[in-house]
User: Fold this.
Amino acid sequence: MVTLWAWGLTIAAVIGLLVLDVVVSARRPGPVQFRSAVGWSLFYVAAALTFGVVLGALGGWDLGGQYFAGYVVEKSLSIDNLFVFVIIVAAFAVPPEHQPRALTIGIVVAQLLRGVFIALGAALLSAFSFMFAVFGGVLLITAFRLVRHRRREPAVRDNALLAVAQRVLPISDRYDRGRLVTRVGTRRTLTPMFMVLLAIGTTDVLFALDSIPAVFGVTSHAYIVFCANAFALLGLRALFFVVSGLLDRLVFLSFGLSAILAFIGVKLVLEFVHQRTESVPEISTEASLVVIVVVLLVTTVASLAANKPIQGDHLYPRSAIDAPTELSLKRSPPQGERSKEGVTSGGTGTQARSDSRAEAWAPETRT
Assistant:
């Protein structure tokens, strides 16, 4: 039983690390350099590992093992989350100096949303044992769809909430120093940054629907689920600038994540059946951790060992990053800028060049 003091100290530590990330992002609003991104990523990984060691030493290595298994699952799934963030940032042509701010806010929103889903998931599992089978089925379906649709980039334009926001809200076609609200003439309007955060927030909800059942597959302890999610999400801002340049190298990642989700789905189903028939074996936490780590290692080594990227077999097509489909706002770019646009074929069809769109959505200069 985890005491209220333990919960309080853990939440305080997570909030402290989040504040640190926000402060660093605010003090260095420009693009994050690769070396700095690697350093901060390693720092947050070290913090997560240190927490796991302390938890194992104080609470027993059974809890410690569950935490490490959950952390590895959530960290691997967060890479999937980051790739979608890359596509959103590219689709909205977010200027490099504003990307850290957008990512930091998105991560904070993800922490809050997952906290809600963790509480809901724990309550459902406690009240209804058949939810183990339901969660297992969800993960098996997700694993199948992840492999089946690996050649399709997420359709940002198909987001219903974004479409409604574009129709009913006044939105400018210019970024304004990372602000959410700007002034166009005498009228106050929202900036494209608002749409970016809305896209990231809705994406966080979808990923929480997958990641929460996944971590409950390796532990049913709500405290461990919270800690694994919290420490996996910490440092994603820096990790974004590390992995965004590795998309073409991680060619087999979708297969690895699919295998992990399918394995955890089977584990949940077996646990549900075991509760009714003891002759059906359960998969231990130790075995789960070994399988997850081995799958990730094999996937990573195989991807990096490939001589060149295999078109269509990385998590999302590179075309989604190099030439994302232009998202039209209510106000079109000036005619002079529109004439600079070119079109490229490939991906999902005719696509506007990202460099021309970046000019069209460049931040406003104010005197």
Observations:
- The radius of gyration is 22 Å.
- Residues 309-367 have pLDDT under 50 and may be disordered.
